[in-house]
Amino acid sequence: MPLAQNILAELRRIVRTQNVLTEKEDLIPYSFDGTAALKQMPGCVVLATTTEQVVAILKLANQTKTPVVTRGSGTGLSGGSLPVNDGIVLCLVKMDKILELDRANLTMLVECGVITQTVSEAANAAGLFYPPDPGSMKISTIGGNVAENSGGLRGLKYGVTRNYVMGLEVVLPDGEIVWTGNKCVKDVAGYSLRDLFIGSEGTLGVITKVLLKLIPKPAAKKTLVATFAQMDTAAQTVSDIIAAQIIPCTLEFLDRMTIRCVEDYAKIGLPLDCEALLLMETDGHPAAVADEAAKMEAIARKNGALEIRVAKDEAEATKLATARRSAFSALARVAPTTILEDVTVPRSELAKMILFVEGVAKKYQLRIGTFGHMGDGNLHPTFLTDERNKEEMHRVEEAFKEIFAEAIRLGGTITGEHGIGVAKKSFLPQFAGDAQMRVMRELRRVLDPNGILNPGKMF
């Protein structure tokens, strides 16, 4: 549905005519994100290039009660950037400057549209390290990472995006600019408003600048891949590694279906006669890396690993890591619709959860490939289906319900890194409970009384 002409005219005045898209063929790429089976045409797309433009756009939207959905690269997997059909998509990919790299304070100040991998490469060039590495890091923006509190393969040792945000510039729904945080390692003055906006999925404000924490780059790294005849022995290996007080930077797994799809896709040379594969990486001081790698190999062998490959150099390490990083792409080739899900349970319950997913797949006669972050309990059951088959999609929805309910029963959560968005908002009350839901709704109402920011998401 097109927006009122007076609103469009004012938007064109704010950002120039070429940065306001209204033609259908221009809007289609912004009508969906990375979430399967969700699509909605926006009223228009506005490409902002400065914080001042964002301020003016939000003031106009708030005055006219026009919905605004903020968007980066559109890689989200919960429908968080799905447009509203009579609203504005506020696209911030043109706000893509690295404003400062402060080696003395180990920080980097960036605009929200900087690509995550660009942040990583800039830090690396300065001899520093930005650890968060979501699977979409080659195309996702740092603002989207902060809004979704993205995770990644290195989350076990290094944490998630939240752990590397020191400050934020946020434009509130009425156009007021808030700066929260600073370069100080210690700061306990007042409420931690920075943490309120991290993971808020664009419902409380528009993030325009991010002050990131960097750390020294690890001096060495070693990569191993181990295969197992049973998933529970792979899970026991993970438990034993953690019990040995080893915290790898990466501790990932693939199940049988995912292994086969990855090998067919990437031709890495993975063995196909196994039920589970573990990707293990340790980094740090060279002596500690060598010691930890040897201990992890011994633990895997003690638990009956069928085969263990140790990367001889960086090139082989990259090749082995491709086995995990290409999992989603490999599975996506198998069926017309690929639904990548995201649940997390305590590590002690992970083997039980994986077996439960396998049982659900059999019960509902569905193809599900499972992979994920075994070291931190975050797994990704990936449904290989066809959204045109309504009966099968109903079975997929029923399977979702059982998987989320079991994750909650085991003391876990309905999302470890993808967010709530549209896809999981019906499950949030079951997980959060009445009190948390009330507090979150009240916070949203206080900051956005007219409900213009990302309406229909999370609640």
Short description:
37% of the residues lie in helices and 21% in strands.
Helix content: 25-40%
Strand runs, count: 19
What class would the helix/strand composition place it in?
alpha+beta
Poorly predicted ranges: none
Mean pLDDT: 95
Rg, rounded, reads: 22 Å
Name of the level-1 CATH class of the largest domain: Alpha Beta
If you consult CATH, what is the topology of the largest domain?
A: Uridine Diphospho-n-acetylenolpyruvylglucosamine Reductase, domain 3
Terminus-to-terminus distance: 24 Å
The shape, in one word, is: globular
CATH architecture of the largest domain, please?
2-Layer Sandwich
Q: Tell me the fraction of residues in β-strands, as a range.
A: 15-25%
Number of alpha- plus pi-helical segments: 15
Biggest pleated-sheet summary: 8 strands, antiparallel
- Structurally, the number of domains stands at 4
